[in-house]
Amino acid sequence: MNTTLKKIYNVFFSLEVAVILSLIFMAGQIYATLGFNTLQEAWGGVYETKWFEAIMWLLGINLIGVMFKYKTYKKTPIFILHLSIIVILIGAAITRYFGYEGTLHLRNGETKNYIMVERSKANPADVYKKDLGFSIKLDKFVLKHYPGSMQPSSYESFIEVIDKNKSFKYHIYMNHILVYKGYRFYQASYDMDGKGSILSVNHDPGMWVAYFGYILMAIGFLWSMIYKKSRFMMTVRKLKQSGLFAFLLFILFSGVNVRAFDLGEFAKKSKAVSDEWAKVLVQQRGRIEPMDTLDLDIVHKLTLKSKLYGLNYNQIVAGMVAYPEEFQKLPLIYVGHPAIRKLLGIEGKYAPYNAFFMPNGDFKFTKEIDKAFKIPDKDRTVLDREWIKLNERVYIAFEVYTAKIFKIFPTPNSKMMNYRWFSIADLQNAVKSGMMNPIDAQFYFNLFKNLADGIKTYNVELEKKTREKIYELQKTYSGEILPSESRIKWEIFYNRAQIFPMLIGIYSTLGLIAMFLGFFEIIRQKRFKKIETLIVGLGWLALILHTANMLLRWYISGHAPWSDAYESIIFIAWGSAFASVFFFRKSMLALGAGLFVAGMFMMVAHLNNINPQITNLVPVLKSYWLLIHVAVITSSYGFLAVGGMLGFLNLILFAMNKKYNLENQIKQLNNVIYLALYIGLALLSVGTFLGGVWANESWGRYWSWDPKETWSLISMIVYAITIHGKMIPKLRGEFIFSLLSFLAFFYILFTYFGVNFYIAQGLHSYGQGVADGYGWVNILFAGMGAWFVVVLVSIFMAISSKISKPVVIKEENKNNDYHPQGENNGM
Predict the structure, then answer these.
(1) Whole-number pLDDT of residue 54
(2) Is Cytoplasm a UniProt keyword of this protein (predicted)?
């Protein structure tokens, strides 16, 4: 091989070029998710283009060359880990070139032997007929709703497969598919009249190849963590030798003194009677829950607090029911924007309900709110968003004052109406429509009046007897859907304990104390073991409290507590705290970083735009995959968060290095960061591909370039480059590694918050949290851009150095079988 070819070979089959190709691959995905309005446009602009396809081919070829050039096959777990990527790419190629997807639309009683196949994701209307070789008949489609609501709880197709002389019946529903003759049939959607089913049909010969790659990746990560010659285990040994085998890991409510009717007397005397009011069962969003839960949600929406004016949330709602005229004068509705406060003529942050209405009863701000709703979400200003929120708060208050929100009365024919319950505001219409007779309606009206009278007169006995009568009616007509008495009691306890908000202060305080102690020990070159033991013990207690409250929420809701925005952030915080006290508790800096990160995530979970309600699951989430996929991937965020925080702390140590000579501490902390990132990357990779398996079992494709899965892949690439940076001369310095570890976490933040609340598209976007404004995204873009620039500049410097360096052909060092620098790093 001549010198020029040798240079080309050395340059192309190098880690530097692998990084360059990965950065281009990342850039394409970022452009696809941020540069187009819809996923359909992104397919046409990026995912189906030849250049994007070419990048994936070049990545695969480069990886094969790098694996053989550095003889990774001599280290079995490292070889398996990198081989898994090749296998996954091969599976994706088979799917891309030989697989196809289509839909089968059937009405009740209809039979078809063909599907409509898409030629292009960019143009779903461009379809052709594909003969199945057998027929599918829809015997019956069944659509079920949660009690008393129009929210689907499941949709199911009862079909018959007819193939020549044989046939069989099958039941298809979400997460339960039909596999027959190479085709996979999924319940995708349905006709709005409930009499037709839309099945997604997938023919994918590359699926099992990709699955095999996923399994290899999981084996490779696990094996590399116990393989004695791997970088991971070498780092563990270094930390053991240094004695640092550790991990990286309230909001105060203030009452305002306001003088109204006799608020002080009401605050003192109404607590016992409002406790009885809180036990009444109410139907809300398809759930049967204690009034306590609804009251907490109402007051949080109106005031952003759970207490105000010396009243707890039950007393506030009970007062609004019993004394509507007095409470309509009380400033209860939070107004977030100064411009609106000025229009209302209020000095503080709260306005009374009456302030929003003219003397004739007309709403004052109809024009402003209509204008805000007409503006596309991405173009709305902070003021526009506040008008929309204010509209919701005023409407909720209206529903309370008219008692429309309190759906507590079932009917004798409740089961026939999907267990729909009524409020007293619904009674008149129910009588007119024949759903309720006038005698029952009057009886229910009197019962609700007794509840209000019990609050007015502070008559606990009347309130209790009335509540028990209502409960007997609910049990008689809707007993099948009532939660157990134990669950009701625990839900009330969960609401009142407010453990999750309390953990904000506990985690943050412990984290700051631990980090301060860590810095103090470094400067003094002395450890304070008794204080360390106390902090670790308190950390364990906080984690146990956190875990117990998550399990309690699981019991109350009936599903794993990581199904929506609020729950998933709570779980990420749990992952950070767990990693800190379980894995790396001997390092105060690592422990403090993890606990502080947990506190910050808990704080984010309780921001105004995150909804903490316990809600029902959508049909696709009713799967054991929810438990596995989400638990694994959100756990990875905890490890990566602590790695990012430790990277930031290590940068501070660099700034102090000249004065205190902290080289050894910096290296040790970098080793801890490496372990955190490696575990985090392993969990992120496995969790992402488990999500692919779930997606394939749910709607027929294991990879659809949905924004969340795309950004998960981007994050995997970012952390793979960060970890492999230790093998590239221009990226292997302690300072660069700490900097990249810190900046890399901005990609995780965007993967979670950016996709959920900024891009807000795709199958993974939570609908329960909407960002107030997008200024925070600029911070994430700045962090991600800084990481990208640091890596890009370093890589070009490394490649330039290789090109300019003369080629010396010599016998390769047999012992240096993986890294060109001769460092026995493993992965």
Answers:
(1) 94
(2) no
- pLDDT tens-digit series, residues 71-110: 888 888 889 999 999 999 999 999 989 999 899 999 999 9
| Residues with Cβ within 8 Å of residue 537, at least 6 apart in sequence | none
Closest CA to 413 of 422, 404, 424: 422
For residues 178 and 331, give the distance between their C-alpha atoms in angstroms, rounded to a whole number: 57
Residue 144, domain extent: 100-203
Say whether both 456 and 336 belong to one domain: yes
* pLDDT (0 to 100) of residue 787: 95
List the Cα angle 28/33/35 in 5-degree steps: 80
| Counts for the chain of helices (H) and strands (E), in that order | 29, 14
Return the number of other C-beta atoms located less than 10 Å from residue 454's C-beta.
24
pLDDT at residue 814 is higher than 50: no
Q: Which residues pair with 421 in a beta bridge?
A: none
Closest CA to 785 of 744, 748, 730, 751: 744
Give dist(CA 721, CA 719) in Å, integer.
5
Locate all alpha helices (DSSP H) within 206-262, ordered by sequence.
207-226, 231-242
Cβ contacts of 117 within 8 Å, gap of 6 or more: 100, 101, 102, 127, 128, 129, 130
Cα atoms found within 13 Å of the Cα of residue 142, Cβ hemisphere only: 12
Of 163, 185, 203, which residue is a domain's last?
A: 203
Flag whether pLDDT at 223 surpasses 60.
Answer: yes
Task: Give the end of a domain, one of 570, 591, 612.
Answer: 612
Does the pTM of the predicted model rise above 0.85? no
As a whole number of angstroms, the distance between CA 300 and CA 522 comes to: 44
Q: How far is 622 from 722, CA to CA, in rounded Å?
A: 36
Is the predicted pLDDT of residue 152 greater than 90, yes or no? no
In a shared domain, residues 288 and 377 = yes
CB neighbourhood size of 816 (10 A): 14
For 546, half-sphere exposure in the C-beta direction (CA atoms, 13 angstrom radius) is 29
Are residues 49 and 70 both part of a single domain? yes
Higher pLDDT pick, 699 / 462: 462
Task: Tell me, yes or no, whether 291 and 368 share the same domain.
Answer: yes
pLDDT of residue 622: 52
Q: Sign (positive/negative) of CA torsion 440, 443, 449, 454?
A: negative
Report residue 815 as tokens: 């012992």
- The answer to whether residue 765 scores a pLDDT higher than 50 is no
Asked if 135 and 78 sit in the same domain, the reply is no
Candidates 765, 747, 763; CA nearest to 755 is: 765
What's the rounded mean pLDDT across residues 787-798?
90
